[in-house]
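Input record (one chain):
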Amino acid sequence: MALPLANVLGNPATTTAEFQAAIEAQRQYLEDLGFSDIAGVASVAQLPSASTSARGAVQLSSSTGSTSNTLAATPFAVRSVKESSENASNLSSGIVPVARLPTASTVGRGAVQLSNSTGSTSSTLAATPQAVRSVKEDINALISNGRVASAWVRFDGTGTVAIDDSYNVDYIVDLGSGHYQVHFASALYDANYSAQVTSAGAGASYFAGINGNVPPTTSSLNVMNWFPGVGGADNSIMCVTVHGG
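The corresponding structure, as predicted from the sequence alone:
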């Protein structure tokens, strides 16, 4: 039977075998109390379990989808969630990844790619100011070269004058039977423009043109419609087209 450790320590008569036996007995005694070795490491079975209301031993988990309230998250799990959050929205700079945004369309708002093209038929891209300016400059060049009408109008000259459709025409003044004054919405550059005046009426042949008694100006043009042998006559279809200016 092994001697108690206290009896062998400091006893010069203790043999090596008795000393080792005493150490082993002490180790067994500590294990019976719940310690795994003399270093003082307690057995897990002897520790209370941790919970949301009490401290204790707890198992670690790297899961990011668990609903457990008895496990403890590892730094790996915390980092995984952090990276997922950063991918969803970079809160430090406010940048949301494009992949998480809806795509813009003609029926809904969303992310859209810009385009400098002036010839695209896309309905999913957005034109840049550069593209708009290019088209504007092209149109202005055509107008200044006289290749596109500077102004045009179709109106009903009977009764109260009414504009059916127009471009760069603001309003029309009725000056009497078959006499009209067309006012431009934006003044032309000069009065050296070309104007074509036509008219149509049921069952009659009318003549239409510029009123030569009133010189054209950059802001207005006097036109007239007449019936041979009768004089000025109103008509339901009057058309004026201006090039140049």
